[in-house]
Amino acid sequence: MEKNLPILQAVQDFLTMIQRSRSQNTHRSYSNALSFFLETLAENNKGKTLTELKETDILYCIEALRYHSPATEKLYLTAIYRFYEYLTAIEVAEFNLPNLRLLIRQRSRRSGQRLPQFPRKQIESLIKYAINIANQLPGHQIERLRILRDRALILTLADSGMRIHEACNLRRGDIDWSEQKALIIGKGDQQAIVRFSHRSLQAIKEYLAQRSALDGASGKPIASLPVFARHDRGAGKKIKPISTTTGRKILHYHVLSVLGKDAAETITPHSLRHYFVTTVLRGSGGNLKLAQELARHKSISVTQRYAHLSDDELDRGYHEIFNQPDDSST
Which of 74, 144, 270, 308 is catalytic? Predict the structure, then answer.
């Protein structure tokens, strides 16, 4: 890569590398961040080529990010720093990366910690709905497959703690049916073990049983086929994995159907992961280490964010303490 190359081209090359090595979500986030960075450079008449780019140019971006949330600021600055790091690694520019990190640390805001919030009772209603959704299957094969797939996906997300991209990438050969486990490639391109409940594994089996003819006619090894496949005109009779976007749309559709618009704007695939972690903590008497391992959190401090009592529990505890009948008044 030439040193006088336009920064736009360098950004595109960097994003291509990210697309090949990271998840779709990461690629999308980095694309948004670098587009924002290019806009701030253009607004300040700075850095049209790599030779003009300086560490201090990130300050324009930091200033513009004041109008965004601290979380967005942190995400964007991480992506921009990785871009500078990439340019340094391929030796088309010489940046003082320690100085750049110092600028970011001194000038950017810190995200305040937020307790994970999710509507537990509504999620439990969604799970109950998912369990019963297959009681009356339609006659059309594609519709039957969609319903069975959607039920299996919802129960898998709620009972395994898998991230949406992990579930979408799950292959039939990844699952050890006798051990009720799967070996997956998780966050950070790390291998990980996830476990399945009886009900989620049974839902997957019923879905795959309905799909057996399509799988057999695919001409591909069964183990290589996705667990959750597309059933639309674009896929036809081919067995193609659902994308993370499709996975989100599936959940949104069912939440909207059973719980309404307000819930559909609140409950996401990650909400089901929150539900999973909190369910583990509640069921284990607050065993943080168990929850950390099952959720595959690198740091137990992340798991601790879930170790809080629900509003209902707090209300009950408060009233038991302060609103008991006062014997002294009789």
Answer: 270
Whether 240 is catalytic = no
Asked if 306 is an active-site residue, the reply is yes
Where does residue 2 rank: exposed (0-12), middle (13-18), buried (19+ CB within 10 A)? exposed
Taking the complete model, does pTM exceed 0.85, yes or no?
Answer: no
The one catalytic residue in 273, 274, 275, 296 is 273
Rg (CA), the chain: 24
Residue 330 has pLDDT above 50, yes or no: no
The verdict on whether 27 is a catalytic residue reads: no
192: pLDDT strictly greater than 50: yes
Domains of the chain by start residue, with CATH: 7-107 (1.10.150), 120-309 (1.10.443.10)
Produce one character per residue of 36-73: b if its CB has 16 or more CB atoms within 10 Å, e if not: bbbebbeeeeebeebeebebebbebbbebbeeeeeebb
8 Å CB contact between 45 and 86 = no
Quickly list H helices, 133-197: 141-160, 164-168
In the residue annotation, 297 being an active-site residue is answered as yes
267 with 158: CB under 8 angstroms?
Answer: no
Is 282 known to be catalytic?
Answer: no
Does residue 163 carry a catalytic annotation?
yes
Active-site residue, selected from the candidate residues 48, 54, 181, 187: 187
